[in-house]
Design brief:
The chain is 23% helix and 22% strand. It has 360 residues and is of the alpha+beta class. A hairpin with a 7-residue loop joins strand 10 (147-152) and strand 11 (160-164). The radius of gyration is 24 Å and the shape is globular.
Length: 360
């Protein structure tokens, strides 16, 4: 399967299919322990996560399966048999052979994606859980970014997000950690945050977690998955000490993203008014078709604490269109002297997604 760990999709004796990671995967054997413990903690917080299990892979199966290898260029080495970590696949591929997991989706109706367009993210059934996932990732110091899959039981039903890949959780305790590395790369899932209360009940659950609960979550991790006998004990101590610092990490993350958060479509629509010279009417910014509109958009500040939004006419080249239409370039300037040309237009990168072709 895709991914740096080079996992394999395997059917086990319980009739379920698992995405299996092997001890000799390129990311290291600690990934298996991180997956196991991270999944247990996510379940304690009530988050939607793929159930994990310790999977035994027989040496004979590896020797008889030519495709079971790990590619470490320029060599290909067999997958290491023994105790591996398996993440249960959300689709029922077992044809009814002993399946008892209620969240499995029938194959004939299943839709699973690892990414959705932004316009569908707001309709995800449990989109609020992305805030809980962020609390979890900041607590466990996940350096790999949040990864999810979107599962839909029926074509007419909404998608549901499910957490996957906790392999890089806890690595932030031994490496330089930046809170931005724990986020999901589609910031629209965070657009409804208005206060720290949006992260409840997960934030309180983390702060109220005791040492006994963490020790219980770590039970069952094979000894061979930790090279140091004291590594697990030290990690649990760090988790317990870090639980009261997650709130501080959230405020730190807010400060890092303060300028960019005002550049999302919804934030602009809520805080500014837009006057279109083409349509000759006033409306919200979301009503104006920004990427395709011709002419100049006049944007006025509605609130004093907002940065100045300055609109300038500029030609944008679109492939396949003749002649090239003129569009509006919208710049964010936090200085009150926004019209002074000597101050840089620092927000071009932040609004590049409004226009095809990258930075303008």
């Amino acid at each position: 399967m895709r991914g740096a760990a080079q996992s394999h999709l395997m059917r086990c004796l319980d009739g379920n299919c698992y995405v299996v990671k092997f001890p000799n995967n390129p990311q290291g054997i600690d990934v298996l322990a991180n997956e196991f413990l991270g999944g247990r903690i996510a379940e304690l917080l009530g988050l939607s996560v793929s159930p994990g299990a310790v999977v035994y892979v027989d040496l004979e199966l590896v020797s008889l399966s030519e495709e079971m290898y790990i590619e470490k260029l320029p060599d290909k080495i067999p997958c290491q048999a023994g105790l591996c970590f398996g993440s249960r696949f959300p689709i029922d591929l077992s044809n009814g052979l002993g399946v008892n997991y209620p969240n499995l989706v029938p194959t004939s109706h299943a839709l699973v994606h690892d990414i959705l367009p932004d316009k569908f993210l707001g309709d995800v059934e449990n989109v609020a859980e992305f805030l809980g996932m962020l609390v979890f990732d900041l607590w466990t110091r996940n350096t790999g970014g949040r990864q999810v899959v979107f599962v839909r039981k029926e074509p007419q039903l909404p998608y549901r997000a499910q957490m996957i890949d906790q392999g890089f959780c806890f690595r932030g305790y031994i490496e330089n950690f930046n809170a931005l590395r724990s986020t999901y790369n589609r910031w629209r899932v965070y657009e409804n945050v208005r206060s720290i209360d949006a992260f409840e009940p997960w934030l309180t659950l983390v702060e109220q977690t005791d040492e006994e609960v963490l020790a219980t979550a770590a039970e069952g991790i094979p000894n061979g998955w930790y090279t140091d006998n004291d590594a697990l004990r030290n990690l649990l101590d760090q988790l317990y000490a870090q639980r009261n610092k997650v709130r501080e990490s959230l405020f730190s993350l807010r400060n890092l993203r303060r300028d960019l958060s005002l550049l999302t479509r919804s934030s602009v629509a809520q805080n500014v008014q837009c006057v279109s010279t083409v349509y000759g009417r006033t409306g919200d910014a979301s009503d104006a078709c920004w990427p395709r509109q011709k002419g100049i958009l006049l944007v006025a500040r509605r609130e004093r604490n907002l940065p100045s939004l300055v609109c300038l006419p500029c030609p944008l080249a679109f492939s396949g269109r003749t002649p090239t239409p003129k569009h509006t370039r919208i710049e964010l300037r936090s200085d009150s002297r926004a019209y002074d040309a000597k101050y840089p237009l620092s927000a071009n990168r932040g609004i590049a997604h409004f226009y095809p072709g990258g930075r303008r």
